[in-house]
Amino acid sequence: MNRLMPRLLMTPAVATLFLWMIVPLVMTIYFSVIRYNLMQPDQTGFVGLANYEFFVTDPSFTVSVVNTLLLLGSVIVITVLGGIALALLIDEPFPGRGLVRLLLIAPFFVMPTVNALLWKHMMMNPIYGVLAQVWLFFGATPVDWLTDWPLWSVIVMVAWQWLPFATLIFMTALQSLNREQLEAAQMDGANYLQRLRFMVLPHLGRSIAVVIMIEMIFLMSVFAEIYTTTGGGPGDASTNVAFLIFKQALLNFDAGVASAGALFAVLLANVAAVFMIRLVGKNLD
Amino acid sequence: MAKKSSLSPALVARTLIAWAVTLLVFFPLGWLFLTAFKTELQAIAVPPELFFTPTLENFHEVQERSDYLLYAKNSLVTSVLSTLLGLAIAAPAAYSMAFFRSPRTRDILMWMLSTKMMPAVGALVPIYVLAQKSALLDTQLGLIIVFTLSNLPIMVWMLYSGFKDIPPEILEAARMDGATLWQEFRHLLLPLGLGVLASTGLLCLVLSWNEAFWSLNLSSAKAGTLATLIASYSSPEGLFWAKLSAASLMAIAPIIVFGWFSQKQLVQGLTFGAVK
Lengths: 285, 276
Fold this sequence. Notes:
heterodimer, A: MetI-like fold, 13 helices, about 70% helix, about 0% strand, globular, B: mainly alpha, MetI-like fold
């Protein structure tokens, strides 16, 4: 094994990922400074930063950034808190625990298009949906979820998918918790909340970091759920940055502006990456 | 349930709460399952019908209206091959990072992960143009390449955190004794890292099977996966819930059953080294 070998082994992965990143990036940079409308192919030419200016001054832009962060933050909070609670609940044996584990993990395996259509139609439809029936049963007026609470509807769908993931990771982490220490603390008079605060939660620290990191990676660019349900609307109410770029490219046919937006998304991803390194980087050593 | 003395109130409460929450979380899927066996009229009945005579009509129609087996085959081929290809590229890199650390290892890993955070839609126009130019549009090969590349960062990370748990002394000792790289891989890394290789492969398989963005944009009638088949059922009125449910059930059942059988293995690797 010579000194070169480790680098050589790394090369295929690094090189392919580099190409996967740099080729679209260079093309995108090029598209972003020219006039490039798919419907007006005859109009070309260098436009400088006009596409950037258009994308950033679009009123939808601020809304989409806020929505992206709201979506990301809400789903992380819901899944981390819910996941810890569920993991604690099923940490100790009870009848049917094995079956509960199987049923709880299932939503994680559901493809986003099925997830979105299932919630849009069978759960959230204001007339025939299950939620509407439940509302009627309690004498309330059914809510038109996708119209009145579009972003929250998407958050519910995404959180439903990721809650099982968080639960499973926390459950696995709890299994390695030192039971004798917990019992000793209990004997010494530490109540449940104290044990939770000073023993269980610190033990879960690393796995909380990992859950946040993985969810950040996947949820910065939620797309299929929005595409299949609200279409980003009403207005921009459920448009995130990824969907705004899509709208520019394929609904307004403006590949130039979409490319400028894509570069902004790259910037956002890098800011998030720096944040991510601060948050969990030390846990990876 | 019949354990001699253990029916304490705490246990009863825990059991009831756990089952209530679980059924709530699982409910949408259970509802999808039921609806798949209803007629279209029963599917939108108000109030919902819980007891009905199940029909297999929807499944026939799904297969008739669109060639389910073709899409299922595409899903299977693209997810299995992209998983194998991904493992072949990711494993050497993860091995190198785990056992030959350099000051830049963490930076490289973080850079890889950051590529995964960019919205795929940002690269859509360039990738579409490239796929079109190289005749990879609507081909299985095109999807395999894209799936492999988009899963690669996660695979490297998962394998890296798994390999780190293998004591490096074992590998060093073998190297001292003159083992070649292939022998080291074949006789040490493969058996010792089998668990993490398996769970990485499993996760990758699930992610590729469920991938919707690229398959929707880069494939259609020839190489389309099950995710694209489902999208074709999203009629704007959405009043064909029974057929939609049947198609959805056929699209998710294989991977859910597969996931259930392999969940123990999958979960072990999913901790990404967060659990010591």
